[in-house]
Amino acid sequence: MIFENKDGDNESWKTGKDDKSENLDAESITQVDLTKAWFFITEYFARILHVTGTQVDQHLVDLVLKHIKRVADMAQYIGKQAGLDSDLIRFEALCHDFQKLNPQKPGGLSDLMDHATLATGPFAKFMTGDLKKTPAFTARICGDMFEHISTPVIVGIVVRDRRALGSFYGYVLRCANMLDYAGASGLIYDVELRQRKYSLGWKEDGGDFKKAFASACRKRDLFLKDLFENCPLFKTLWRGFDEQFYRAREAIIHLASINKTHSEKFIKIVELSKPKNIIEFRKLYKVFQEQQLQHV
Known about the structure:
Elements: H1 31-48, H2 58-82, H3 86-95, H4 112-116, H5 122-130, H6 135-146, H7 152-158, H8 168-182, H9 184-194, H10 200-205, H11 209-229, H12 231-235, H13 242-273, H14 278-294
Helix pairs in contact: 1-3, 2-3, 2-8, 2-9, 2-13, 6-8, 8-9, 8-11, 8-13, 9-11, 11-13, 13-14
């Protein structure tokens, strides 16, 4: 997808300074920041590969980077349709899984809370040091990115308190992340992570491939249900953003419908082909991708 640059931002954190202000870049995201962020992430992942004893390999790095790109494209599309700052939402999406990989963890994957807590450590130093952003703006970015781990169950409990969701941007990022898991690419991504030996998903499924696929399908169904049905639930949080909210919802429903159809096709192929392990599963997905490209 090709996106325009800035679309204007209507959130209350904006300073209101004009484009000539020398301090404006300290509380906004530029095209240069986007380029630096991607370099920072890929370089960080490359260093992890060389840590002694790490279970992170190039295949896992590639999986996470592809997931990040898909989420970034969808988040930016939603943000653009809603009239949000599309560079800002893309930046948050590019960085949301910065700590997904951990060379010290079994399977090479961080715990759920650890990978979403970015307010301290390398990322915060990158924001305030390399990008020269203010601590307040950095904290706001980290708060938005934390929202991507909010599952439908968790949100159902805490949604009565608006503070439980950092901002409208956090909501968009959360939806973009779930949208990826709802598609065929996200489905195989989830299965791949669950098949990483000693990872949390591997333990839950007992290392069984069929159980991993079933677990990924259940997550897909749960996320799709949330994406299609939770409009009234979140509408109570964003009074004052009515027009933007409904435009965002239209974009989310549009993407959810596309991803739902795409993943349904792949699930049917898997059910008919009955792959016995992750290797056969990968081959099946590769053929599926080639077939989809032929129809584009």
